[in-house]
Amino acid sequence: MSFDNDPLWRLRHALAGMGLALLASVFIAAFAGRWLGTLFGDTYGARVTVYGLLLLHVVIGAVVLFIRVAQHETRPLSAGRVLRWLASLWLWPALLLLTRRR
Fold it and tell me: What is the helix, strand, coil percentage profile of the chain, to 5?
């Protein structure tokens, strides 16, 4: 069985990196939501709202990055690559602006 023509197989490194970065982002958003929610009113509703907005930001970033970058991702998965995906998930608006200006 040949995987050369399977588009998901070609994207396996990007899918794995994005998945691991999203998983880590859930925990980061939970901690940040708790901390920032405390600053914005110290109520459960404030913490949940901040957590939800952070998760929305990361999920939108995952979609944008996957559409724009994933097809070019061919290097094997490593800890450094996952950290790069993780940073990109959080900083995707800046990355998008920088690439549009070029």
Answer: 80, 0, 20
- Amino acid 1: pLDDT: 56
Q: Which pTM does this prediction carry?
A: 0.83
In a 13 Å sphere around the CA of 12, the CA atoms on its Cβ side amount to 8
Tokens 């979609």 map to which residue?
A: 63
Cα separation of 98 and 54, whole Å?
22
Give yes or no for a contact between 86 and 21, defined as CB atoms under 8 angstroms apart. yes
Give the pLDDT confidence of 52-74 residue by residue, as tens digits.
999 999 999 999 888 888 777 77
Q: Are 72 and 13 contacting, i.e. CB atoms less than 8 angstroms apart? A: no
Cα 79 off chain centre by: 15
> Tokens 């996957």 appear where?
66
**Helices 44-69, 79-101: inter-axial angle, 10-degree rounding:** 80
Is residue 62 within 8 A of residue 52, CB to CB? The reply is no
